[in-house]
Amino acid sequence: MSTRVHVDSEIGPLRRIIVHRPDEGIARISPRRAGELLFDDIVHLPQMQAEHDVFRKVLEAFVGPENVLETQQLLQEAIETDEETKAWMIERVIDYEELPSFYKPKLEVLDATELAETLITGYHKKEDLILFDPIPNFIFTRDLAAVVNDHVIITRAAKEARFRENFLTRLIFWSHPIFRGMREEGRLINLNHVDEFPPSRRGEVVSIEGGDIMILNRDYLLIGCSERTNAHAIHSLARVLFERQVVKNVVQINIPKDRSYMHIDTIFTQIHRHHVVAYKPIVVDGLSSNVEVLRHNGTSSFYHSIRDFLTNEINPNMEFILSGKGISPYQEREQWTDGCNLVAVKPGVALTYDRNPYTEEAFRESGYRILHANDFLAGIEAGTLDPDKLEMTIITLPSNELSRARGGSHCMTCPVERM
Asked: Which residues make beta-bridge pairs with 145?
């Protein structure tokens, strides 16, 4: 099992990635509680799982099945490391979820596989018992952690509905064999460590989610200041990153604090050296947004738009492929259905949903081929398509149910290794 963990761009050839298949807990979300659990709609789970399975098969075609890591499997393997870890985790979960003490032996008798499933879904199969709420947003593994060069930032969610996700993520990165060496070498940065990341003098707690974190190159880390990530957290993290010499620049991207743009990856993602997919009103026009560059030497710079920052400091030749072709109402519709939220598997090859026709037209006009995931997989099976030779291609994913959760392919992936 490889223990190399390194990401220094959004577009370098992908080697290993963490995903989470939609689990049974999602099928227990009622319309009344969907908003409370941060899910925009109730979904048909079997169809959602089938769509996610296609997504996973596409990733596997590029990196190999062994390199698409599943959070439930990682959690199971972390629990299996030793009985002390399992006992500690059960104590913490009972305390956090405020469960009666008589539930403790019910959890202790579960093996690692059963316990991992129960912790994620909230459902104890052996007892036919609902112990606690599901964590439906666990499918958005991008938000759990971010690899920045050779360090891992374990994030801290803004909303209580995601706190158990943070807890399970800490366990994985603290105990799993892949990441244990990083802990011993001091390459884990845990934003949940209140001594290192205390509240501000005004009482603001640290909150950063991974959808607001992008590393464009080894020197530039972008962090969105959004509905889910606050400025206190960005400045606190920048201080630690500069002290450890992880990056030279932390870029605070200020965007509207609105559910429609909950993270910066809902309004732009990079898919090629010269191409960013973007929502025009905010990224290009600078509507209610600006950029502050914090530098390791204590200086800073300011830009009135994300476009100005990218073209001045990252790539003067950067081009912007606009969701909905930058035309209303299509740009608003297709930003909402994750037209800007793509994950690159290598420069110029990226995955997106199959429901944004105007954005697809913008891709074609920029020189990209559109290939549906089912056709891509059929070509692989027939031997007529080699993923290693694929260039300038957007692979579109089935998305009738996946898109209801309000997160695209970038949200559903946590890269742990890129070349």
From this structure: 154
Q: What is the pLDDT of residues 158-195, one digit of tens each?
A: 888 889 999 999 999 989 999 988 888 889 999 999 99
Spatial separation of the C-alpha atoms in residues 413 and 16, rounded to whole Å: 10
| pLDDT higher than 80, residue 82 | no
pLDDT tens digits, one per residue of 186-238: 899 999 999 999 999 999 999 999 999 999 999 999 999 999 999 999 999 99
Instruction: Tell me what pLDDT residue 180 has.
Output: 85
Residues 6+ apart with CB under 8 A from 311: 318
pTM recorded for the entire structure: 0.95
Domains of the chain, first to last: 14-29+44-418 (3.75.10.10)
In this structure, the strands spanning 275-278 and 343-346 are unpaired
Q: Residue 260: pLDDT band by 50, 70, 90 thresholds?
A: confident
Written in H, E and C, the secondary structure of the chain is CCCCCEECCCCCCEEEEEECCCCHHHHHCCHHHHCCCCCCCCCCHHHHHHHHHHHHHHHHHHHCHHHEEEHHHHHHHHHCCCHHHHHHHHHHHHHHCCCCHHHHHHHHCCCHHHHHHHHHHCEECCCCEECCCCCHHHHCHHHCEEEEECEEEECECCCHHHHHHHHHHHHHHHHCHHHHHHHHCCCEEECCCCCCCCCCCCCCCCCECHHHEEEEECCEEEEEECCCCCHHHHHHHHHHHHHCCCCCEEEEEECCCCHHHCCHHHCEEEEECCEEEECHHHHCCCCCCEEEEEECCCCEEEECCHHHHHHHHHCCCCEEEEHHHHCCCHHHHHHHCCCCCCEEEECCEEEEECCCHHHHHHHHHCCCEEEEHHHHHHHHHHCCCCHHHCCCEEEEECCCCHHHHCCCCCCCCEEEEEC
